[in-house]
Amino acid sequence: MTRFWVGGYGPDMEGDADGVGFLSADEGRGPSSLAFRGVAAPASSPSWLAAHPALDVVYAALEGEGAVAAFARAGESTLVPLGPRIPVGASVCHLAVAPDGRSLIASSYGDGTVTRLGLGGDGQLQPAVVDQAAALRAAVFGESEPEPGDPHAASDPYPTPFGEEPRASHAHAAVFLPDGRIATTDLGFDLVRIWRPTASGLARDHDVVLPRGTGPRHLVLHPSGHLHVVTEYSGEVFTLAQGEDAIWRLAAATPVSEIVQVGTDFPSELSRSRDGATLYAGIRGSNTIAALRVRGDGSQVEPFALADAGVNWPRHHLLHEGVLLVSGQRSGTISAIDVDERTGAPRDVRHTVVAPTPTHLLLAR
After folding, report:
1. What parts of the chain have a pLDDT lower than 70?
2. What pLDDT shows up at residue 156?
3. Rounded mean pLDDT of the chain?
4. 180 exposed, middle or buried (CB, 10 Å; 0-12, 13-18, 19+)?
5. Confidence at residue 344, expressed as pLDDT on a 0 to 100 scale
6. How far apart are alpha carbons 42 and 276 in whole angstroms?
7. What's the pLDDT score for residue 199?
8. pLDDT tens digits for 297-356?
9. Which among 257, 219, 258 is positioned nearest to 240, based on CA atoms?
């Protein structure tokens, strides 16, 4: 049996999900047997899910509460709470777990907070650790004590035009880099931010400023070492490259699709094939899935295919064994789309499943 956990919006986020859902397909029958099997763990709007790399533990961003919760699998289709929920920031919308399983990054859309939480040996969440030596220096010498998540360090790199309201910081996603640093997106300030983990949480390393009004949302690390970033407002994929000085810079940009309409289409999730040859972007508005080829050294990206997502408002998608599973937030459905094994292009919708306000899909162990 192939199993998936399903994140969703509940009543506190104008949805009808009762918690983390369970989706499964019968062995040997493929996507046509996919069905929503019910609630695996009651929770309030677990809009994003992340898995521990070694343990059977799932973390949920409780977006309405502004907290993170941990769950341990207790059966084929059941998750049970693992320790207390940890408050992070307003409208926490994304989680990324470190490859070593020792920490977690929470990105909060509401207040721009980027927070690092520790993870125990059993996977349980731990509050951000404050450097006790730094705290002692602060008390004795009056030095500033660093904040665990450095939540207020972001500032708008662009001046506010006369007559307009100042923009707000909106942290939206994170990815761990091979050198141990972390990259996060700030959709509100058009930034990709690079962080260094410290004993106190996070320290800002440097920022990459994207063009004003592009709205960087999600990002993926390519096998070539490049970062690909999809923008919600301008409908583009920006490619970042790291220089010999360890500074990340903009290398290239391309439209998500040749027919994307700015102001009408709003890209959401960005994913890649296992070999990195293809990127997939969900596009809310036109409700499509765009496929882009990655060429050359990994910095060249070009759109080559566009397919019906089979859902309304494709918030997230997951590529699994030649099938794209797409969660439709507004349609309350999950579609299964065939992917051409030769070209990587998305094709026809094979199957559709009814699910309560689905926002995220996670392959279960």
Report:
1. 1, 28, 129-153
2. 95
3. 93
4. exposed
5. 97
6. 36
7. 84
8. 999 999 999 999 999 999 999 999 999 999 999 999 999 999 999 999 999 999 999 999
9. 219
Which position has the token pair 């996919």? 34
CA distance 45 to 7: 8
The first and second tokens of residue 305, run together, are 């295919």
Secondary structure class of 284 (helix, strand, coil): strand
CA proximity to 42, closest of 100, 103, 89, 85: 85
Q: Which residues of 301-310 are buried (b: 16+ CB within 10 A; e: fewer)?
A: bebebbbbbb
In the sheet where 171-176 sits, what is the strand order? 171-176, 182-186, 191-198, 201-209
Which pLDDT score is estimated for 32?
83
User: Which residues have C-beta within 8 Å of that of residue 113, sequence separation ≥ 6?
Assistant: 88, 89, 90, 92, 106, 107, 149, 151, 171
What is the DSSP code string of 12-32? GGT----EEEEEEE-TTTGGG
pLDDT at 132: 40
DSSP 191-240: EEEEEEEETTEEEEEEEEEPPTT--EEEEEE-TTS-EEEEETTT-EEEEE
Amino acid at 42: P
pTM for the whole structure? 0.94
Q: Backbone phi, then psi, for 223, in 5-degree steps?
A: -55, -25
182-186 and 191-198: which strand pairing?
antiparallel
Residues 6 or more apart whose CB falls under 8 angstroms from that of 68 comprise 59, 60, 61, 62, 85, 86, 88, 92, 95, 104, 106, 117, 125
Task: Residue count of the chain, please give it.
Answer: 365
Check residue 1 and give its pLDDT.
Answer: 64
Record the tokens describing residue 66, joined without a space: 């502004």
CA distance 206 to 204: 6
Tokens of 174: 């994170």
